[in-house]
């Protein structure tokens, strides 16, 4: 037996003679190209070699660790749930979106709490009975039509799926306009207390359906007062007071463990978040800050993190649409600005807007304004069939390979080469790399300078996720 082992060792050594390097380890990769010809396609196995490799060198350091990731996905709006639920390919679509094995394994979704700016039915809240301060008539019954069935089916294929709930508006009778569209919360103690109870009842009602709400944001886009669709303005002072005196204490007294996230609006107003977090009576209840992409600098979450390092950052909305139809341009911008830059700015999630819409960017009730040209990650044809849009592949390049509980780790960048890296709970490392140049070039990955190099020739205007 000893002679046989010695012979095998000699054979391995002889196989290395004459080569510039010996094979050492392997790396798997998945590629999407801007010309739309290769879409999240698995590459041939790439074998590690001793030596430096060629092209742009990417150093990955497991020992430099940052935030723990919670997930990647998009919003399950009323319209998204409607088209998924009513499609002849219902089961197939749910698997494509949520299965970690058969699909892209979406791990986090955003759920409007009632009305939003894209609805398959007339906008509603869970407490539309006027002046029901005790919320005796609170009901999630309207969510049972297609929202709850889709979530339950998604949880069957991905039981670790996380959900953040977000209100676009309080019930009309709680607002100074008595309408779902525009206006503000009536600044009255009884109304504030009832609205805090509204959040608790939402969480408890979903818990009774076997669905855990991981987090809630206090208000979607609190600086957006558009009166053409459900909105509600809330100044930072109002949001701080509501959390400090009503929502936070209400959660605590009801033993609600759901996280409270503030702001949930664009990168262009870091003062909104900072002002709230500077009030320590409020910040004791706040777990994080949520961000949107429609204005400001992509590094805004990093700036707030630097001021408040114990508060988590979340990226919760960005939409594609008819204003940007070029696949390559969308692939490059979204990868650089969202899927790489946001985790590097300390966000624990990257969520896009609609999970799915139909071929007319709906369904969209005429009485409800909002975006009429937004694009979902899937376009689900009202007569059957569906199309995977660029957003589907963008989400998939992280959600399929970066598992909940993964930790972002350090990775270098190079000329026309952006990166972000993570270590999964099982110890594997996932690296997303973008070649923003129009020409191909070699990229060499090294992890912790362990002597192994993995080289791949990246096509121009392409992204790839590598797992090793």
Automatic annotation (TrEMBL):
InterPro entries for this protein: GH (IPR017853), GH30_C (IPR033452), Glyco_hydro_30 (IPR001139), Glyco_hydro_30_TIM-barrel (IPR033453), Glyco_hydro_b (IPR013780)
Reaction catalysed by this enzyme: a beta-D-glucosyl-(1<->1')-N-acylsphing-4-enine + H2O = an N-acylsphing-4-enine + D-glucose
Any GO CC annotation of this UniProt entry: membrane
Pfam families: Glyco_hydro_30 (PF02055), Glyco_hydro_30C (PF17189)
Enzyme class: hydrolase
Single GO MF annotation: glucosylceramidase activity
Signal peptide, first to last residue: 1-22
Superkingdom of this protein's organism: Eukaryota
The UniProt record lists the keyword Lipid metabolism: yes
UniProt keyword Lipid metabolism present: yes
Domain Glycosyl hydrolase family 30 TIM-barrel: 70-402
Record keywords: Glycosidase, Hydrolase, Lipid metabolism, Signal, Sphingolipid metabolism
EC number: 3.2.1.45
Domain named Glycosyl hydrolase family 30 beta sandwich: residues: 405-466
An individual GO BP term: glucosylceramide catabolic process
Family: Belongs to the glycosyl hydrolase 30 family.
The protein's name: Glucosylceramidase
Species assigned in the record: Mizuhopecten yessoensis (Japanese scallop)
